[in-house]
């Protein structure tokens, strides 16, 4: 009898482990209905399908809950965690962390997009590096046209190897710290009881990462980018308020005793930068409230703040001039394909307005290279046609295609196309009427996948075999 009980217990434990998701995706949301569907579908379209999406709504008053209820009816991997009180993104994420069952934890904002292979590639790299956390660079994009060019958060660093992130690196680069904007994936066992500070509404990510690193967590940054970071006026991190900076300064002061001597020196410089940013934001708030004298007094007492204020005014004036003289609209039709010699004989390809040549091997480009695809395809009116398996990969960097047509049968699609088309992509035949309501609904992210011919041997990837995330 005892042996039978042990067998049943072992079987139950095995079943529980088998049902455990590989990735728990945590998505906090407050009134993010405008971009919610595209963000959620980019998670559900992941090639690593064994995941759960914990959607922590922070007392939204828009259509967020209704939209999520409709999505949950179609995909059981999604769970809705509602709150009657708006407590901020940190509290929402903590509620989801308490419920997470995955081996890995991924934080995704409710207005951003993921490349369909992000989780598969990052976890593969993390296993090779024996990392506790793995991060990729962020590709910035805008809703429609913008005054600034998209690119990656860290710029074109030409980094080809994964880089281990230290607390000193996390403290660098200004008040907000660029690395604090990253969205790493964490091993859940290394997070343990670690949670976000709920008294911080902006910069809570940076503080969480610092505590993770100061406790010995091994975090690596890959040279690739699989996360598309949407920039728009409603973004919570668009502007830092003086009260937010006060919270960030207080949070860093609490961490200082855990730092080494060199780390404390960097933290001290960062504190000075945050204090300067706080004075600058106080000047902006005073100007908006027509409190001129306090602003002048602050600028006279702090020359560096005066210089930063002058630079801010110059950027605003330059932005207004660019809006008065907008850039010409980007090409309405784009072809994503390897060089011309390997294009299939497909009707219409010869008349494309612009051909974006992409490599035969996805790993031959870094995140900064793929960011250029995002830049040229982000206009809402853009039509995109992609060729072959690498074209399918390239589509993960297209933030806002309008529609294109599929001329082949489903059997000709590259592997993974069905999954993408079922999660936010759609197919419309060449004879479809785009004015039909069903067609407009389906045209959220419509692409044309044309089968690639037999391609030449792939060029070797610049990445070393030890750190390659996917074979070419």
In short:
The protein has 472 residues and is an alpha/beta fold. Helix content is 39%, strand content 16%.
Helix content: 25-40%
CATH superfamily of the largest domain: Spore Coat Polysaccharide Biosynthesis Protein SpsA, Chain A
Supply the helix-strand structural class.
alpha/beta
Mean pLDDT over the full residue set: 78
Tell the overall outline: globular
What is the helix tally? 16
Instruction: Please mark out the parts with pLDDT under 50 across 5 or more consecutive residues, or reply none.
Output: 1-5, 7-16, 402-412, 424-448, 451-471
> Largest beta sheet, briefly?
9 strands, mixed
Number of strands: 15
Rg over CA atoms: 24 Å
Q: From the 3D coordinates, which CATH architecture of the largest domain would you assign?
A: Alpha-Beta Complex
Instruction: Return the CATH class of the largest domain.
Output: Alpha Beta
Layout of secondary structure:
Elements: H1 2-19, E1 23-29, H2 33-44, E2 51-57, H3 64-72, E3 78-81, H4 89-99, E4 104-107, E5 113-114, H5 118-129, E6 133-142, E7 163-165, H6 167-171, E8 185-187, H7 188-191, H8 204-214, E9 219-231, H9 242-255, H10 261-288, H11 292-301, H12 303-324, E10 333-337, E11 354-357, H13 367-377, E12 383-387, H14 388-394, H15 417-421, E13 425-426, H16 437-442, E14 445-446, E15 448-450
Parallel strand pairs: 1-2, 1-4, 2-3, 6-9, 10-11, 10-12, 12-15, 13-14
Antiparallel strand pairs: 4-8, 5-9, 6-8, 7-9
Helix pairs in contact: 2-3, 8-9, 9-10, 10-11, 10-12, 11-12
């Amino acid at each position: 009898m005892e042996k039978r009980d042990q067998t049943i217990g072992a079987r139950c434990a095995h079943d529980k482990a088998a049902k455990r998701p590989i990735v728990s995706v945590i998505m906090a949301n407050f009134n993010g209905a405008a971009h919610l569907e595209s963000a959620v579908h980019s998670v559900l379209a992941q090639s690593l399908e064994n995941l759960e999406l914990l959607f922590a709504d922070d007392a939204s008053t828009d259509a967020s809950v209704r939209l999520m209820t409709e999505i949950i009816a179609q995909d059981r991997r999604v769970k809705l965690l509602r709150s009657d009180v708006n407590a901020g993104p940190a509290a929402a994420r903590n509620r989801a962390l308490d419920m997470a069952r995955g081996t890995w934890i991924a934080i995704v904002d409710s207005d951003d997009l993921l490349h369909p292979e992000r989780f598969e590639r990052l976890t593969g790299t993390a296993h090779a590096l024996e990392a506790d956390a793995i991060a990729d660079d962020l590709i910035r994009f805008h809703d429609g046209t913008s005054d600034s060019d998209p690119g990656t958060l860290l710029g074109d660093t030409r980094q080809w190897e994964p880089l281990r992130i230290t607390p000193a690196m996390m403290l660098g680069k200004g008040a907000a710290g660029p690395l604090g904007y990253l969205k790493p994936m964490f091993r859940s066992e290394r997070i343990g009881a670690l949670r976000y500070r709920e008294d911080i509404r902006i910069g809570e990510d940076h503080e969480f990462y610092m505590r993770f690193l100061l406790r010995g967590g091994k975090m690596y940054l890959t040279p690739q980018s699989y996360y598309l970071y949407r920039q728009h006026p409603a973004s919570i991190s668009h502007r830092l308020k003086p009260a937010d900076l006060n919270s960030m300064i207080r949070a860093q002061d609490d961490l200082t005793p855990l730092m080494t001597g060199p780390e404390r020196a960097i933290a001290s410089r960062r504190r000075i930068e945050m204090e300067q940013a706080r004075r600058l934001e106080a000047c902006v708030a005073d100007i908006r409230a027509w409190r001129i004298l306090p602003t002048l007094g602050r600028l006279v007492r702090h020359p560096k703040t005066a210089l930063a204020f002058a630079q801010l005014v110059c950027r605003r004036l330059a932005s207004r001039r660019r809006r008065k003289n907008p850039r010409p609209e980007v090409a309405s039709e784009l072809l994503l394909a390897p060089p011309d010699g390997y294009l299939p004989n497909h009707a219409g390809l010869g008349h494309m307005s612009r051909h974006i040549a992409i490599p035969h091997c996805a790993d031959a480009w870094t995140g900064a290279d793929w960011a250029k695809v995002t830049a040229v395809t982000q206009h809402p009116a853009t039509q995109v046609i992609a060729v072959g398996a690498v074209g399918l990969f390239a589509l993960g960097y297209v933030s806002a295609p309008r529609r294109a047509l599929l001329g082949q049968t489903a059997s000709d699609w590259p592997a993974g196309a069905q999954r993408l088309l079922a999660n936010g992509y759609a197919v419309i035949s060449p004879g479809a009427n785009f004015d039909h309501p069903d067609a407009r609904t389906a045209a959220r992210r419509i692409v044309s996948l044309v089968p690639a011919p037999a391609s030449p041997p792939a060029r070797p990837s610049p990445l070393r075999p030890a750190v390659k995330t996917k074979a070419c």
